[in-house]
Automatic annotation (TrEMBL), chains A, B:
Transmembrane segments: none annotated. Keywords: Transferase. The keyword Cytoplasm does not apply. SUPFAM superfamilies: GST C-terminal domain-like, Thioredoxin-like. GO terms for molecular function: glutathione peroxidase activity; glutathione transferase activity. This is glutathione transferase. Residues 82-204 form the GST C-terminal domain. The lineage of its organism: Eukaryota, Metazoa, Ecdysozoa, Arthropoda, Hexapoda. PROSITE patterns: GST_CTER, GST_NTER.
């Protein structure tokens, strides 16, 4: 197992937080290198592909959140035991990411007309996809992909927090008791509790932070 | 290994083609169930999450293109031999998907103003991301992620064809000799050649089809 991890990302949750939370859950020490939004133009040219998050693993730089989460999931034995199990994990994560993507897109949209369209898309997609995951959690004895915790559950926890911030006018988890229970169960983990208490507050958590659920 | 595969998707390349091409490359027989665009409203309510592609594996239905490609990649031994190798494959695929997503978005966009923005985004992103892959292919002895063929190369081949159709005003692979060479090398595969000759022509290939490169 590599011994040196450094995460470079905005002082935001977003695409960096699942990596931070996975390392935290696994008890892997890492340097949490955060920068403020205004500093990005300075930093961008120094990053591979001009993108963050970047995870440095033993000094080598890697990009792309989900591939990195999958990698860390395997490293921490939070993956599946066979191909079918890994397919279940990957599919759950894609579903989470699909709904988050629309929520972000809507959040950033500046044209009123387009925002309305994205509103409509989100309000169809969110109950559909979260409803599917709710059923899965029910069937899987409380976890999102398999009958035990996997890296998809950690991605879910971060998605939960972001969705609560991105969809402020309505609780997107209303009526999804199993997803809420999963969130609460994950928040029993001591490593995550410590991290959530200590992490810097940032402007993506202006409406909701998991700290209120500890 | 499961024995029964059926792919349900539009009569288009898009998100279905990498699954078709992987099964084809691996010599795995599958039912290629295609429907026309106009029939989608009838079919949508019968699909899990109202989405396609759907791959039926021994009668069970699965969605999500990339998780399915990863699954098939493992099944066909076109995956990495360890976590780091799989991270390289996953990252390459994410990069391909990132550039394709913008190309699709731009293609579908109806507002002139927004289309202009997406134009600008695509024309920055495409050379940057494809340029990164070009370097990777050069370093990897002709393949996109590792020093041998992986499922990322098959995803690349499909992305190549779609990009050629989605960015008609300029060849997006101009100047990327290694990517073009990789495409040509993949097209030497007999299974792929047979498939490409026989597959139905569809309206996504109105500008370019791999058949012209055989």
């Amino acid at each position: 197992m590599p011994s040196n991890f450094k995460l470079i990302y905005y002082n935001l949750t977003g695409r960096g937080e699942p990596i931070r939370m996975l390392l935290t859950y696994g008890g892997v020490p890492f340097e949490d290198s955060r920068f403020e939004w205004d500093d990005w133009p300075k930093i961008k040219p120094t990053m591979p592909l001009g993108q963050v998050p970047v995870l440095e693993i033993d000094g080598k730089r890697y990009t792309q959140t989900i591939p990195l989460c999958r990698y860390l999931g395997r490293m921490l034995k939070l993956d599946g035991k066979d191909d079918m199990e890994n397919l279940a994990i990957d599919s759950a994560v894609e579903i989470l990411w699909d709904v988050l993507k629309v929520a972000y897109e809507r959040n950033w949209e500046t044209s009123d007309e387009k925002k309305k369209q994205l509103d409509a898309k989100l309000h169809t997609l969110s109950p559909l996809l979260l409803g599917k995951l709710e059923e899965d959690v029910k069937r899987n004895g409380g976890f999102i992909a398999l009958n035990r915790i996997t890296w998809a559950d950690i991605v879910f926890l971060c998605s939960y927090e972001d969705m609560m911030n991105l969809v402020p006018e309505k609780d997107p988890f209303e009526g999804f008791a199993n997803l809420r229970q999963l969130k609460n169960k994950l928040l029993e983990n001591e490593n995550l509790r410590e991290y959530i208490k200590k992490r810097p507050v940032n402007k993506m958590m202006n409406r909701f932070s998991l700290i209120s659920d500890l």
